[in-house]
Write a structure and sequence with these properties.
six-stranded mixed sheet, globular, alpha+beta, 152 residues
Amino acid sequence: MTDSRSQKVAQAALMATADETEAAFYEAMQQGDIERLMSLWAEDEDIACVHPGGPRLVGHVAIRAAFEAVFSNGGVHVTLAQVRSVEGPGCEVHHVLERVQAMTPEGLQTAYVLASNVYLRTAHGWRLALHHASPGQPDDMQDMIEASSVLH
């Protein structure tokens, strides 16, 4: 492992909360930093990622290849517009609304993505186990709260 890679893994190991890991994940996406981004994933072989409209990617090799393709033109300007979380012992699920901006021939365009991020507490700190994203809409900014207590 290179010194740079060692430092990034060591920094990831210091993530004391799922929130810190999530912040580092989105910073790595903005910077297009594949090493930093991959250091935040759990070591489990069944980690998974689904990009909007894409297939399920399982394992480090597939996830890395997909993010390398995403980063081929640099980082992704993505910010969290809304975060909700469910916490349990050793696991947190964050369902988020991402705002993604990109410069196109028509000017600055904004897209919204609904994502679920699952974090596990491991011996190396909090790590990402799943990032599942699908296209969203600007009106997803409004929380949709069901009045009924019935779960579907």
